[in-house]
Amino acid sequence: MSMSHGNRTKERLVVVGGDAAGMSAASRARRLKGPDELEIIAFERGHFSSFSACGIPYWVGGDVADRDQLIARSPEEHRARGIDLRMRTEVTELDVDGRRVRSRDLESGAEEWTPYDKLVIATGARPVRPPLPGIDAPGVHGVQTLDDGQALLDTLSRTEGRRAVVIGAGYIGVEMAEAMINRGYEVTVVNRGTEPMATLDPDMGRLVHDAMEGLGITMVNDAEVTKILTGEGGRVRAVVTEDAEYPADVVVLGIGVRPETALAEAAGLPLGTHRGLLTDLAMRVRGHEDIWAGGDCVEVLDLVSGSERHIALGTHANKHGQVIGSNVAGGYATFPGVVGTAVSKVCDLEIARTGLREKDAHRAGLRFESVTIEATSRAGYYPDADPMTVKMLAELRTGRLLGVQIVGGEGAGKRVDIAAVALTAGMTVEQMTSLDLGYAPPFSPVWDPILVAARQAVSALRRTTP
Amino acid sequence: MSMSHGNRTKERLVVVGGDAAGMSAASRARRLKGPDELEIIAFERGHFSSFSACGIPYWVGGDVADRDQLIARSPEEHRARGIDLRMRTEVTELDVDGRRVRSRDLESGAEEWTPYDKLVIATGARPVRPPLPGIDAPGVHGVQTLDDGQALLDTLSRTEGRRAVVIGAGYIGVEMAEAMINRGYEVTVVNRGTEPMATLDPDMGRLVHDAMEGLGITMVNDAEVTKILTGEGGRVRAVVTEDAEYPADVVVLGIGVRPETALAEAAGLPLGTHRGLLTDLAMRVRGHEDIWAGGDCVEVLDLVSGSERHIALGTHANKHGQVIGSNVAGGYATFPGVVGTAVSKVCDLEIARTGLREKDAHRAGLRFESVTIEATSRAGYYPDADPMTVKMLAELRTGRLLGVQIVGGEGAGKRVDIAAVALTAGMTVEQMTSLDLGYAPPFSPVWDPILVAARQAVSALRRTTP
């Protein structure tokens, strides 16, 4: 049922997508405007709203006991706050000129049109599923949604064999490798790139590679999967590359995601080179006064290179939602962009990056020096001072920090935040050498590893451009 | 033996004080200029060079097994690098007009004058030892030097009783309380202030208080020590305040330090309101072309309030030394100032601060809003997500960040670095709300606690100054 557009006395906001960006936007708008001023209808095709996809590897790995812990706010909770959230209802068309969306109830098959005054597109991303023979076989699992996670857990509980192959070695791939190790599996990671974690430069990826092998994970790099073999009952049996065959009782796809923008594209909305929606800084779809978009379906401005990127990450989606919710409700907020910070871990190894890799800097036309230093996360004499490696890039002539990559033990990863703030502020590595960072032996050597790297970068720049 | 000034063909640098600032300066200068160009003579009255005073509580507490681990570079190592380091030799007079220093060999009593072309003053700080009856009794210990630490350890090994009283509840006091707990002592901390950790606002200090009591430490606040009672053999027996008497088998003084500037004052060099030497940004003593000073004997510019402070901290001393060494050797470097970052821990409780407390902001004439938020160090659903409290101050109208205080579990403390960089960059809390900080469930909730505090600060400012 939808009221006819002309008869409505209050504004109606329609939200497409009931996860982080969409429901943050809806919730923020609701806090700013009550149900008397603003009607909010949200459509979600899945079974869950506002869940932490980033938490799925830890649920599968057993660190998080219960699926429901990953749900930040249930559909009932949203409804209790005055948001008409319609679950299992897929939006199948955006009629931008007519200011309405068409939706289908996935249970009943019923379709209807819903008019809007303001529209938020938060359709998220979809996992890359290469069209390989056998990719849809039982025992092959993505891990994007809670349903995916549950299906994988069901498979694990039914499967006797203990051989897992993870395809892909980015964040999801390495986190799922850890999860399967924690579940007691023999794990092989099959990776297309020269080293795992292509979000790092290969020299830093090599450190991750070595550490993963040290954990008993078999790492296969430079390997293109050509097909997935099935056996008894059509179930997965092996993963085949150009060079070899890897027996598998379960296969996890960790290949990454692409913006889910088919609806937006069909409606003629502007997409970027990564196929994500393009917005202005207020997260409004470019050229469209009353349409906003956020989360995994948009491209974001990279503040270091000045170009657009696609980054699927819950923390950005939440920020987008806040900004959209404020603007939709007549307030003012912006999302200025990202510097590309990410942090992850494989067992005790922490991996972090922010800013540009060498490849990114080259692509952006920047010339730079790069330094790599070894240090410890605490004072060397303090117990459990773990080694950490920091790579730092700085631009020639300006001396501006361009990026930092970190691989190391406990306490290494979140140090990337120091560099993230410095990048945001446009600091030079010279300025960074005198940063007043927290020092005490249990927390840091007297020169924090980030300061050591900055000092080396200053020296390197001085040698190159005296 | 010293060459007469007029006959020297190369420059001579004289360094007064053989610890972090002095020996960093000497080492940096030596790297930039070889022995043929620059002669370096350094005087140290103690038995050790370049040691980590910050590590002493962990040595006393048993986390660090061996004293020598706290020595970054021994006198022999310095000498092998071409620095004429004279141990147990106290400088007793600075003759600024005559460009020479008088020193006394503490073993032989022999005195001599040593001319200099360039002088570095790095005389450090001395512990506050109030002139209380009994303060010099056996069993009462400071913990500033390695000799102090050894003397305390000797006392502990000889003492049967297990009651320790720590006087003072700043960094040294709380770290020594932890050390004595780790040694199996019953610990009472007697504190002059209303709460421990006067470098925090009292509301945050209260959290430290509660946590310390939770560790079984007896906390006595608002208590002025009036005398120390001695018993058998003149040894310490109890600490007496205006209101009570606390039995003690050992007493640790953790009252803080003052700049050691008697020599500099006698020489007519400029001191600030905290009795520290005043320097320019190149760490040159104001008004003196060829005299530099750094480390615990100088005052530093607080970049947030714009006024001078005295902060005795190894990480600053090392930076000062690097800057001085570069400048002495004809290079160029500056130390722009501090934002007042510090981090510490008591057992599993992490304590950190940067920027201004409420009191500092009032004193600096700043009007501000203050918010305090509760969060967790990791995603709430992730194992070992420890609670953390963040207090944030932001200036009215400009919205500029003024300070952050953190008390919480593992992973809480070093987050202060995010705020330290933001303060250095002069960021507003609004700008901070979109910082691209590292997010993954084992490292942070989807909104990092610093972001949560920044958002609350923005809301608070909006309410006050719409």
From TrEMBL, chains A, B:
Q: Which UniProt keywords apply?
A: FAD, Flavoprotein, Oxidoreductase, Redox-active center
Pfam families from the UniProt entry: Pyr_redox_2, Pyr_redox_dim
Where is the secretion signal located?
A: none
Gene3D superfamilies with a match to the protein in the record: FAD/NAD(P)-binding domain
| SUPFAM superfamilies for the chain | FAD/NAD(P)-binding domain, FAD/NAD-linked reductases, dimerisation (C-terminal) domain
Cofactor(s) the protein requires to work: FAD
From what superkingdom does this record's organism come?
Answer: Bacteria
Q: A single GO molecular function, which one?
A: oxidoreductase activity
Annotated Pyridine nucleotide-disulphide oxidoreductase dimerisation domain ranges read: 344-446
UniProt-listed InterPro entries = FAD-bd_OxRdtase, FAD/NAD-bd_sf, FAD/NAD-binding_dom, FAD/NAD-linked_Rdtase_dimer_sf, Pyr_nucl-diS_OxRdtase_dimer
Domain spans labelled FAD/NAD(P)-binding: 12-310
The family line of this record is:
Belongs to the class-III pyridine nucleotide-disulfide oxidoreductase family.
Query: What protein name does the entry list?
Result: Flavoprotein oxidoreductase
The organism of origin for this protein: Streptomyces apricus
